[in-house]
Amino acid sequence: MRRATILFLAVMAVMAVMPLMSRGAEPGSAGKVQEEKVFEREITVTARLKYLLALPEGYETGAERWPLLVFLHGAGESGDDLEKVKAHGPPKLIAAGDRAFPCIVVSPQSPGRGWNPDVLAALVDEICREYRVDEDRIWLTGLSMGGFGTWALAAARPDRFAAIAPICGGANPSQADRLLGIPIWAFHGAKDFVVPLASSQAIVDAIREKGGEPKFTVYPEAGHDSWTETYADPALWDWLFAQTRGHSKRESTPAK
Hints:
The protein is an alpha/beta fold. It has a single domain (8-21, 32-248), classed as Rossmann fold.
């Protein structure tokens, strides 16, 4: 793939989120504000991505490097309207003021069906060049189409991510070897008739057969929407934020 073209196209909007009110917020975060800025960049000569970018409190006033959380949305949020990306996951939590993430959060929008791992990898590289990113703490998560994208991007760049949390996605079991070194916590609903449970189960089983130890949570009564419960669970964020590239900073939370 050609080197990513660095071309600033537009800063479209700035959104201030409400002060944190919910119990899901980080300890001591009441009253904090996290901003999301909207960008569009030409990532390759043939692909442009719009994305939301939220910087953590203190980023502008300090010199430290911050972790990076990459969120990939589902098929329903594809297109050209970035407001749709706020329907679920971290962008929704930020917009509602339900959580102030202790990291940079980037939420790209796919212009169509599916995610291109090469374009996403170029975006991550670009964010790391332009912002003070701690490259040993880059985390990746996504739901449905974004769950598939999470598996695919991690397999394409297994050296890049400290941990991944794919939700109701899946991957070809042949990719198991490439995913062995990454801490993984996958999620799926047992009654998901849009993306069958077997889609996640197959890749999880393949990794385990190779000696890996991915965590896997199956919600017995959940359908396709297994992401609302997942992203509302503080245990996910505690686990994810504890991961650094190459090792975990603390013991993993037991799988449900």
